[in-house]
């Protein structure tokens, strides 16, 4: 079963980070990705540009409407995700606990609705 | 249908119906556990089992009761689930996994009892706490949402929604149907025991459903204690519920609630009390005290009244001190104050009540009942009358309302 970890955090928390802080942050995530790969459960991941850079689009009656900004303004924003392949929710919880984002933000676990086919 | 192991002879309809009802009662949770585990589909399992029971009512009078009634029901229900799955997918079914059915007649290791796995998934931390107890009552014991709603004083629609949501979450998230190992088991076991305790404690004391649900909560705790004799708190819970349930017949007199000190001990279930004492000793021998064991020990002190004719308030006070230290629930704090009132006088009890600092007190019925009782003892009639009024306003169960109203009326006359 594929689970997606949606990583939410308050971006103002990153405001004061130095170059070294970012480098350390990258290392921490690199180690987590390495652990996921070593366990053979890694599917994909991405780290997203800040929410202010989002482009939001909808198509109604053949007309496309484009907005500059996020779908919803929230304090904690989606900053990245992991897709992992695991047997059940307990395994997903155990891996989400190890996700660095759990320590400063929130990790939302969502199971796939597409099955394993 | 010969491969279903049907017996050769037709039997009277009434006997077939009685057998169906008997198998349903004895095996419900085990069958739902077996049927729901592969796809995590509790709702589908319940529907399929109910269809299989209907089919048994139709088939068994003509064919006789199969040699293995549980196996028969599982196979028919599995076929229904496969059909439903195929209809849902509108394509050929997925290959059905070929693992053998654990059916009656083949003794299993207790850990393999599908009801245990079902209990653990019902108490998963990913399910709302309020839904855990009701979900166990439905999935493991087969109560309907309407019955559970009545027992928990909730609206049937709200209860139904709560249960549907919980089952959807179990299936969508692939919550595991197994007894976890190690630290996870220890942690999750607390959720299971809390939910079983909640089943017993939260159920409204009135009505046949509540009575039956309390009995089933005692049964679930016993099942758990039989399977996990190395967990002192599981044993403590089983002892606690057995002690409480042993007093069920003494709790009511002509529709009015009888408080524990006034209960006639000859109405207590002495066999159940003996079983509770045995479980509690078994728990103590493990040398790891905990909340449920202390609560069971408190009930054991009350049960001793059968032999001694009185209640050892000093022992109760010491146990409540211990209880509020490790589990300072509102109920424990209020009970501790009531015991101090009995031991050292009403003023001491009222002082202990005044020490409790919690915003929920305004709506906590036992607090107002205890306060009213202590105020009445202290001779503060006006204040006692007000406290009784607040207690009555917060009481749902008619027997308890009747008890409080008569205590208040007695106060007016004095």
From TrEMBL, chain A:
Taxonomy, superkingdom: Bacteria
Sequence ranges assigned to domain YCII-related in this UniProt record: 1-110
Pfam families linked: YCII
InterPro entries: Dimeric_a/b-barrel (IPR011008), YCII (IPR005545)
Membership in a protein family: Belongs to the YciI family.
Full protein name: Uncharacterized conserved protein
Species classification: Bacteria, Pseudomonadati, Pseudomonadota, Alphaproteobacteria, Rhodobacterales
Automatic annotation (TrEMBL), chain B:
Lineage top rank: taxon: Bacteria
Family matches, as Pfam families: DUF6596, Sigma70_r2
GO molecular function, one term: DNA-binding transcription factor activity
Domain RNA polymerase sigma-70 region residues, every copy: 27-88
SUPFAM superfamilies listed in its UniProt record: Sigma2 domain of RNA polymerase sigma factors
Domain DUF6596 as annotated: residue spans: 188-283
Entry's Gene Ontology BP terms: DNA-templated transcription initiation
Annotated PANTHER family: BLL6612 PROTEIN (PTHR47756:SF2), BLL6612 PROTEIN-RELATED (PTHR47756)
Protein name (database record): RNA polymerase sigma-70 factor, ECF subfamily
Biological source species: Roseivivax lentus
């Amino acid at each position: 079963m594929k689970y997606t970890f949606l990583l939410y955090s308050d971006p103002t928390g990153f405001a004061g980070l130095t170059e070294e802080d970012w480098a350390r942050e990258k290392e921490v995530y690199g180690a987590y990705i390495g652990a996921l790969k070593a366990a053979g459960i890694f599917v994909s991941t991405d780290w997203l540009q800040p929410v202010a850079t989002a482009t939001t689009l909808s198509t109604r009656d053949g007309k496309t409407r484009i907005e500059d900004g996020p779908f919803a303004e929230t304090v904690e924003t989606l900053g990245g995700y992991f897709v992992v392949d695991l047997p059940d929710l307990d395994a997903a919880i155990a891996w989400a606990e190890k996700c660095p984002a759990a320590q400063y933000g929130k990790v939302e676990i969502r199971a796939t609705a597409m099955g394993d086919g | 249908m010969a491969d279903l192991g049907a017996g050769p002879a037709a039997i009277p309809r009434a006997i077939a119906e009685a057998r169906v009802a008997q198998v349903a009662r004895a095996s419900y949770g085990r069958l739902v556990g077996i049927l729901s585990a592969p796809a995590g589909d509790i709702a589908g399992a319940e529907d399929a089992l109910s269809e299989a029971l209907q089919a048994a009512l139709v088939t068994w009078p003509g064919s006789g009761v199969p040699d293995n009634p549980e196996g028969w029901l599982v196979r028919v229900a599995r076929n229904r689930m496969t059909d439903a799955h195929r209809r849902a997918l509108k394509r050929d079914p997925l290959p059905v996994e070929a693992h053998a059915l654990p059916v009656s007649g083949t003794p299993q290791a207790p850990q393999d009892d599908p009801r245990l796995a079902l209990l653990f998934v019902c108490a998963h931390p990913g399910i709302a706490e309020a839904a855990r107890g009701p979900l166990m009552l439905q999935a493991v014991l087969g109560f309907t949402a309407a019955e559970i709603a009545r027992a928990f004083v909730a609206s049937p629609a709200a209860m139904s929604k709560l249960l549907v949501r919980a089952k959807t979450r179990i299936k969508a998230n692939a919550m595991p149907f197994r007894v976890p190992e190690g630290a996870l088991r220890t942690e999750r076991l607390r959720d299971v025991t809390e939910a079983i305790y909640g089943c017993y404690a939260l159920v409204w004391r009135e009505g046949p459903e509540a009575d039956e649900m309390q009995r089933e909560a005692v049964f679930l705790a016993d099942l758990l204690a039989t399977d996990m004799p190395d967990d002192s708190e599981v044993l403590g819970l089983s002892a606690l519920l057995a002690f409480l349930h042993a007093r069920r017949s003494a709790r009511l007199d002509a529709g009015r609630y009888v408080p524990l000190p006034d209960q006639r001990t000859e109405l207590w279930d002495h066999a159940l009390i003996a079983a509770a004492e045995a479980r509690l000793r078994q728990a103590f021998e493990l040398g790891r005290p905990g909340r449920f064991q202390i609560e069971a020990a408190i009930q054991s002190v009350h049960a001793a009244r059968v032999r001694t004719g009185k209640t050892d308030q000093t022992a109760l006070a010491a146990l409540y001190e211990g209880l509020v230290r490790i589990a300072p629930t509102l109920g424990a704090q209020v009970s501790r104050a009531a015991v101090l009132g009995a031991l050292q006088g009403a003023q001491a009890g009222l002082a202990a009540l005044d020490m409790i600092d919690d915003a929920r007190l305004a709506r906590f019925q036992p607090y107002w009942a205890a306060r009213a009782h202590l105020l009445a003892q202290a001779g503060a009639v006006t204040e006692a009358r007000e406290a009784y009024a607040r207690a009555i306003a917060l009481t749902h169960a008619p027997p308890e309302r009747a008890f409080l109203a008569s205590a208040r009326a007695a106060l007016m006359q004095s």
